[in-house]
Amino acid sequence: xxxxxxxxxxxxxxxxxxxxxxxxxxxxxxxxxxxxxxxxxxxxxxxxxxxxxxxxxxxxxxxxxxxxxxxxxxxxxxxxxxxxxxxxxxxxxxxxxxxxxxxxxxxxxxxxxxxxxxxxxxxxxxxxxxxxxxxxxxxxxxxxxxxxxxxxxxxxxxxxxxxxxxxxxxxxxxxxxxxxxxxxxxxxxxxxxxxxxxxxxxxxxxxxxxxxxxxxxxxxxxxxxxxxxxxxxxxxxxxxxxxxxxxxxxxxxxxxxxxxxxxxxxxxxxxxxxxxxxxxxxxxxxxxxxxxxxxxxxxxxxxxxxxxxxxxxxxxxxxxxxxxxxxxxxxx
Length: 332
Description:
This protein is an alpha/beta fold and about 325 residues long.
């Protein structure tokens, strides 16, 4: 089997971490062959740091290269839709960082294009691919916690002002809130909530700061989800059933699951270079899934389908609307 050849769009902090994660996988399976930035100098510097053979000073140049199997897009939020569109138009499969778009309208367009071109496309919700998530699903499926009645998940981190600019589609929901939402939708199997209740507040800059979302499902089941850019939270998730519960610390990148039958541990390989975020070598799991999907000719992953991404985008849209967050992309 030939290696999966990656092209990177952007050289930001998450791109650094994804490259370090790829470096924990066998070279005969994954290679980063090119990186593009809006500045050639920046691209060259990233390429030098990470031993990447080619560097480009524009995204279009990378899109034109023949030797790339899949493009990873780690640019700022407003760039996700246009750059994904550019890469799909150029015939490239895409793994796009979360949130895949600023709103549902963009998400539908991106997914429509991927389907039309018959190209693999996935939103990089890395959490879904962790072995710990498979374990959570197995525990719930086994019936050991009984009927699931409640899911809670909170994600709060103090985010510097630069990450909260309206112009870059900053704000708690798109940065952090997407994680509790994807966790709840996973536990409830992608079922549509019957009702969504939202409360939150805005920063002076007009983006959401702290938001609470209550999703009400059929058979009196609920999820209570909280995100905040103003304070550091416990950042854990719980699944409560009629017979027992499951606790998932660091639920967006978990290495342990605390279940009725004890603690299950899933250690990560250590990074060979410094990381910007916690547990980033765990991005290796989404890379492994991308390779598997490409080899099998799939255009979406069963662990993070297009429908799942659209459902999450829809909940984010509703929450932003209630709190009053409007981005330029919403006006088109």
